[in-house]
Amino acid sequence: MQKTAGIHHITAMVNDAQRTIDFYSGVLGLRLVKKTINFDRPEVYHLYFGNESGGPGTVITFFPWEKQLKGRIGTGQVGSTSYVIPKDSLAFWEARLKKFRIKTYSTIRFGERYLSFQDPDGLEIEFVERTEGPVNNWSFGEIHPDVAIKGFGGATLISAQPNKTADVLENILGLQLIGQEEGFLRFKANSDLGNTIDIKLTPSVRGLMGAGTVHHIAWRASDEEDHNRWRSLLEEKGYYPTEIRDRNYFKAIYFHEEGGILFEIATDEPGFAVDEPIDELGGKLMLPSWFETKREELKDMLPPVEVRVFEEDIK
């Protein structure tokens, strides 16, 4: 059976590019691994944050557009995104988030303690300690590899038809159902990052796309051959995938599952070092070849942004 290894990336909508960089790099310590444009709307940035190399299962991406309306998290969306942090690092993160005046609360799900909070646009984020997953060797301010975010733990899906979404996870994507408790189904993939997916079973309001919501969740395909097999399988099962789209750092196909959530399947290859060296990732605006002739025009259109170190990290 065809199986995805887990989450490739998650893409969300926000209002302000600099505020997003300040939060995900300045507060959470993720590396800005790529600063490019939305290939479908080049007047809008596409920002990618992940571990030191932007490996699959670590990257959250954003379309920051000031004019978009506030969204509402609900059915047909990813409800929350969870990150894996190293064992015994939760106290560090509670203290750090408090230092930046970010409200947190704790929940228990499937025997794991989650530290939950929101980003500046209202996206729901969770931290969970796990031993699995490679160390993130990126350091930023007081955040060092012994406490740094490793990558995704997983995500919670809010489906208009939870049983239909569960069927897609299990019988199309190849995840394993491992439990049910307190209004959630839990599925697991084989990777050691981005591998734990919960489906919320209790009723929710209808989701509205906009700032503070997830646009789509992407699943991993190992290479282009695997990617082609996924597209053929989806067509065979009646899911009407899009044509294969070149996103420069991966190839992508998209489809809506019956619970209303936009799914993508993305290739692990070629990765973010395809157009700039690993040690320079995120340092300058990178454009696909077909937009290179419009570089100056786009630079004038896009707001200036930078990764900033806050006073809280200067000792």
Q: Unreliable segments (pLDDT under 50, ≥5 consecutive)?
A: none
From the alpha carbons, calculate the radius of gyration and give it in angstroms: 19 Å
Proportion in β-strands: 25-35%
Percentage of residues assigned to helices: 10-25%
Number of individual domains: 1
CATH class: Alpha Beta
Largest beta-sheet characterization: 8 strands, mixed
Cα separation of the termini: 53 Å
Q: What spatial form do the alpha-carbon principal axes imply?
A: globular
Tell me what the CATH architecture is: Roll
Q: Give the strand order of the largest sheet, numbering strands 1, 2, ... along the chain.
A: 2-3-4-1-13-16-15-14
Which class of secondary structure composition applies to the elements? alpha+beta
CATH topology: 2,3-Dihydroxybiphenyl 1,2-Dioxygenase, domain 1
State the total count of DSSP E strands. Answer: 16
By CATH, the superfamily comes out as 2,3-Dihydroxybiphenyl 1,2-Dioxygenase, domain 1
Number of helices: 5
Which series of helices and strands comes N to C? EHEEEEHEEEEHEEEEHEEEH
Mean pLDDT: 96
Describe the overall structure.
A hairpin with an 8-residue loop joins strand 3 and strand 4. The chain contains 5 helices and 16 strands. With 315 residues, it is of the alpha+beta class. It is globular and about 50 Å long. The model has no long low-confidence stretch (mean pLDDT 96). The protein has a single domain, classed as 2,3-Dihydroxybiphenyl 1,2-Dioxygenase, domain 1.
